[in-house]
Amino acid sequence: MRFPAAATALLSLLAPAIQDKESATYRILVADKEIGTELVEIERGAGRILVRSTVKLRQETKEGVVERIHRSELEADARTLVPIRYVVRGRGPGGDSEFVFDFDRAKIRLTGTVAGKPAAPQEARRTETAILFDTVSVGQAVALLKALRPEAGAKRKLRATIPANLSEGDLRIEDRGDANLVGAGRVEPVRAYLITLDPVGLAAYVDKEGRLLLVRNPFTNTRVVLDGFQEFGVGRRASPQVPAGAEEIALRVTSGNLELAGSLVQPKAPAKRGPAVLILGGPGPVDRDGNTSDLRFDLYRTIAYALAEAGFAVLRYDKRGVGRSGGDLSVATLNDLVGDAEAALGALAKSASVDPEALSIVGHSEGGVIGGILATREPKLKGLALLASPAQPLDDLLLRQYRESARTRGVAPEDIEREAEARRRHFAQIKAAKEDWLEIGGAKVFVGWLREHFNHDAVGTLKRAKAAVIVAQGNRDRVVFPDNADLTERALKEAAHPRFEMMKFEKLDHLFVESEEGAIARLADERPVDRGFVEYLVDALKRHGKK
Fold first, then answer.
1. Could you report the per-residue pLDDT of 99-138, keeping only the tens digit for each?
2. How many whole angstroms separate alpha carbon 344 and alpha carbon 260?
3. What phi-psi label fits residue 409: left (phi over 0), alpha (psi between -120 and 50 degrees) or beta?
C-alpha cells in the first residue's frame, strides 16, 4: 500500500512519539534460595529510553523477616544510554528514602532525603559519554545488552558511572559465544556475555529472541532469572573423574548436632594404611568440589583426584548448610567452622585406609586460616598447604580490596579515603561487638563470622604450628593479595620454622586459574585449574605429607 506524500510526512513527524514498551519479572536467588523479585519495565520513544525497576527483597533477621523495596527509574539517550536523570526510592525498616541524580555534560548532582530528612547534596565530575550502571537493577543489564552489546566474538569498553559512590570505572562487555541453559527437561540455546565493572563480574545469557534469561554474579552466589526459567542452569564442561586405581565413597561427619556430607577418595585395596589429606574450602557457600550453586571451577575436586593418583586418601566435604550437609551457614561463626573441620579431620583419621600418623591439610583462602588453627591443636599433623590464604586480618583485607578496586575505576583519591574511613568505622563497630548480632539500619544483623575474623591473628597462630607449611599463591590474585604470602613467609622465618616452602604462580588468580588481570570480576569467567599448580602441590605434599 502506498501512502500519499502528505501522510508519509505526517507519520515521520509522529514516529518519535510512538512508544515501544516491554516488561518482565525476574526471580532473585542467593545460594539457590529465592529472596525476592524484580519487575523491569522499559519504554522507548522520542529518542529516549526509560528503564523502571521495582525490586522487592525479603531478609531474614533475628527478629524475623524484614521486607525492603528498591525502586529506580533511569531516563537516558535511547541509542547511547548516556543518562539524563536517575531516581532511586527505597523503603525498609529505617524508613523511606529518595535520591535524585541529575546529569549534565561534566557533572552529576545528587540530592535526596532519608527518613524524611534532607541528605547532604553531593556533586561529582563525570565523563560526558559515560553511561550509568547500577548493579542493584537487572533492568539496566537488559537495556545495556539490547543497545550496546558487541558483535560476535568481540569486546566493548565503555566508561560507566557507579551511582552508589558517584565514581566511574571501565565497563567491559565481552561476547563469550554460544552456550546452553539446561533444565526443566529441555535445553535453551543462548548467547553468553561477560559484563565486568570491577569488582563486579556478571555472566549474562540472552536467547535468540533477545530476552535476557539469566544473570549470574558468582562472587555473591546470586542469580537473577527470568520468571519461568528458575530451574535452568548453565551447561558446562565435564568435571574431573575419579582416577583409575582409586575409589570414592560417601563419608558422613558428625560435628556437634550436625551431619556434614563428604566424599573420601582413596586407593583401591591398599596394601597398608597410607597418607591422607583433608581439604578445607574458602568462604561462603562452597561445596566439597570447590563450587557454589552458580560458580564451577572444581578446584577441590581436581586437587583431590590428583592426590589420589599419587597414593593419598583425600576427604572433602560440603560446608554446613551447603549441598547435603545440615546446618545454616548464614549464622555460623569462624569457631563453628573450625569445629566442623576438626570433626572432619577426626573422621578421616579413623578411616580404615588412613595412617593417622600421616595426616595433612590443604586449606584454600579461609580454609587456610582454619587449617592454621587446627595445626596448633594437632601436633602430629605432617603438612599444611596454604592456598591463597590470608595473612592480613579480614577487616584490613576488605579495606584493601575496596581501595584497589576504587583506584582501578579511577575514583578520586579524596573520595576513596572518605569511603574507606566510613568502612573502617563500620568494621571497628563490628570488631568491638560483644555478641554475634548487631543492630544495623534498624534490624539485627548477624556479624559473628566477621567479628571473629576481624579479631583473628592468622600469622601469629601459624607461628605455633609444628607441621611443614607449603604456601602457594597466584600473583594475579585480587582477593588475597600476593604479598600476603610474603607476610606468612616472614612470620615463619621469625618463628624459625624448620620446614617451610613457598611458590608463586605468575599468571594465576585466587582460584589458581590463568587470568588476564586477576580482578574479582573475572570470577564469572569459568576456566580450568592450572595443571602446573596442581603438580607442584602434589609433589610438595609427597615431600612433606608422608612418614
1. 999 998 889 999 999 888 898 899 988 889 999 999 888 8
2. 8
3. alpha
